[in-house]
Amino acid sequence: xxxxxxxxxxxxxxxxxxxxxxxxxxxxxxxxxxxxxxxxxxxxxxxxxxxxxxxxxxxxxxxxxxxxxxxxxxxxxxxxxxxxxxxxxxxxxxxxxxxxxxxxxxxxxxxxxxxxxxxxxxxxxxxxxxxxxxxxxxxxxxxxxxxxxxxxxxxxxxxxxxxxxxxxxxxxxxxxxxxxxxxxxxxxxxxxxxxxxxxxxxxxxxxxxxxxxxxxxxxxxxxxxxxxxxxxxxxxxxxxxxxxxxxxxxxxxxxxxxxxxxxxxxxxxxxxxxxxxxxxxxxxxx
Length: 286
Fold this sequence. Notes:
It is a single chain. By secondary structure, the protein is α/β, with parallel strands linked by helices. Helix content is 48%, strand content 13%. The strands form 2 sheets. It has a 6-stranded parallel beta sheet. The chain has a 3-stranded mixed beta sheet with strand order 7-8-9, with helices on one face. The protein is globular, with a radius of gyration of 21 Å. The mean pLDDT is 95.
């Protein structure tokens, strides 16, 4: 199943990612409507041609006409939204999301969802250190990865539709992971990196450091400008996989500490060689 222009698309949650999805889909010729809590976000999106229609109200008519509903909400809000409003979905509607953790929501939502509506989870590995629809930018998808997270409850048609969505949005690579594999991967590649950036910024409160820093510090701590409401929920929702990765990082950091302490230059260089070799695999080739 592929997305065609006559498909009606509804985005629930018009922040950075919801707005970026809307921009990309509107540019491709789709009719895009949105529901979000902030009136100013609706007004901005309408004024800038990001959506065709928007509201802060639960309007059964626009929910009921949507063939594809994209949820860009915090995990707990996403779950509550489904509980309270799923009666308005049309039969045959497909739901997907942008949520950064899956174990806390996917099986639960699929278990409470009507049998004639399908939820296929996805995670766009793209973003910025800013939030809000006013910062939306569909160019963030270029060269980025998009992960589809199917379960045994998903049909091949919905999986194909979700993969096609990632391709249309402009992601370079579309992959599939199970819920467990996704949350383990995200603990290392995303959540741990944010933990490191936050910890680094909290480790030294000397004044005036910004006057002396170079680009290496800026690059390493870019993501320390963090949405504390969202990321604290993501950390705690994926607690054990994240703690496991933090334990492994502490062991690696301690190993480097001991090698420096003992003046073991060869061992320090060996860790650097391993780091350089592994990092090269992550360079973007757009």
